[in-house]
Amino acid sequence: MSRVGKNPVVIPQGVECHLSGLTLSAKGKNGALSMSISSDVIVSIAEGEISVKPSSQSKQSRMMWGTTRRLVSNLVHGVSMGFTKRLEINGVGYRASVQGKTLQLQLGFSHDILYPIPSDIQIVAEKPTSLTISGASRQRVGQIAAEIRNYRGPEPYKGKGVKYENEFILRKEGKKK
Question: Where is the secretion signal located (predicted)?
Fold first, then answer.
């Protein structure tokens, strides 16, 4: 029995969910999202809750049970509250700024990196060394944060680079004389 899958997803106030065939769509204050449901699970909406059950006792159905429940939960949470990732930039001369729909990163290269901001994502640079990425889709927010971090990941000797706010970088000792 799936410990995650057996709990229903509560639909918060102000969110509308519709199930048509194998497509679940949700609409809230942060926009509208939809996802396709696997044929290995049965999804039903009743009394302000979305419940997910396996269609059979096969291994594939039981695997998709908890996964689908978590994806439905992320869909509902995204349109009602949204998701946020924070990035920190460490290093001398490393900074970021948002100009219109473009993120400008100065990460020690000979040129600035211009990253176009997608329409469904908001990026805010509170300080030149910290970024906040937010949006309705958890997958999109995480993907954008990973792409920005990938330009100059944190290095283990001085800790320079772009890292997640709560990420711990294991530091190494430099060479000895």
Answer: none
